[in-house]
Design a protein that fits this description.
By secondary structure, the protein is an alpha+beta fold. The protein is 34% helix and 24% strand. It is built from ten helices and 14 strands. The chain is globular and about 60 Å long.
């Protein structure tokens, strides 16, 4: 580690820019405390200049959303011969695409809520195959941006219009009533499951990043069998998309204990409120140690 020069890449052009900057600053400060030769990059349009002008042995990617999680920056770094944290281009692209990842889950027999796809310009789907209630999401956004819960058919058009602000396709997904779990993967192995308990019924952008009443129960207060199943599904989803090193899988558990994979995050948050660091801490791994482990994994 002492010989490596690490660039923490954060910010970027996505709708998750502000959260990305928070993650990047937290990682940068942790690595500084560990005497790592590290520098911070607010990625705007200058990524090529940074690669050209700065010596960077490893890029620590804290870029959430498009550009960072869709494989773009990974391809740029690979073409420059620079190692980086997390998954490769293809897995990143699959995970950020909620429709493509759904198709992979179905293909690999991973339980996931029923769904259908809506195209901008087609108007409201003539016939709903699911719900309501259902969840409407943009195809590519993270952090619950553009997400709506539709509880009656009359609200569907408004939810689709909201989703279409972020792209031309939207995912309509069966709404699972129950408990929300998330499973982090570190070094390819599942960490303890976390239960997320938002004050309101929906774990949206506000609940994730602003609401102090959102609770994170680590480890999740579920049975040993349920914990085993959640961790197994987290690992299965990680592997199904071809992820490497680390990720975080979001899961819903209904009242009968059935579990459904929602999505995989290839660059999960790295702030004080973030879930992967909380899960690692439950295993005795501090935030600083987690950052070091991710860099070591990138080098390997």
């Amino acid at each position: 580690m002492k010989k490596l020069r690490v660039g923490v890449l954060a910010g970027g052009p996505s709708n998750e820019r502000e959260i990305s900057l928070r993650s990047g600053r937290a990682v940068h400060d942790a690595l500084m405390q560990e005497d790592v030769d590290v520098f911070f990059v607010d990625v705007r349009d200058n990524i090529y200049d940074i690669i050209k002008n700065e010596r960077m042995d490893v890029a620590f990617l804290a870029l959430h959303g498009r550009f960072g999680e869709d494989g773009t920056v990974q391809k740029i770094l690979e073409s420059a011969g620079i190692k980086y944290t997390g998954s490769g281009p293809r897995a990143s692209e699959l995970a950020l695409d909620k429709i493509a990842s759904k198709q992979e889950f179905v293909k690999k027999n991973i339980p996931t809520p029923r769904y259908q796809v809506a195209e901008k310009g087609d108007g409201q789907p003539a016939r709903l195959n699911i719900g309501p209630p259902l969840v409407v999401k943009p195809q590519f956004e993270g952090s619950s941006i553009g997400l709506s819960v539709v509880r009656d058919a009359g609200s569907l058009k408004e939810a689709l219009d909201k989703a279409f602000e972020y792209g031309t396709r939207a995912l309509l997904e069966e709404y699972i009533t129950g408990r929300e779990l998330t499973v982090g993967i570190l070094n390819g192995e599942p960490l303890p499951a976390i239960e997320i308990v938002p004050k309101e019924r929906v774990y949206d952008y506000k609940a994730k990043y602003a609401d102090p009443d959102t609770q994170y129960l680590v480890p999740a207060p579920i049975s040993a069998d349920e914990s085993k199943l959640a961790r197994s599904l987290g690992k299965m989803a990680h592997d199904a998309l071809g992820c490497r090193s680390f990720s975080r899988t979001d899961i819903m558990m209904d009242g009968s204990g059935n579990m459904f994979v929602l999505e995989v995050n290839t660059i999960p948050g790295m702030t004080s409120r973030s879930l992967l660091p909380k899960a690692a801490a439950a295993m005795g791994i501090s935030f600083n140690q987690l950052c070091i482990k991710l860099i070591e994994d990138a080098v390997k």
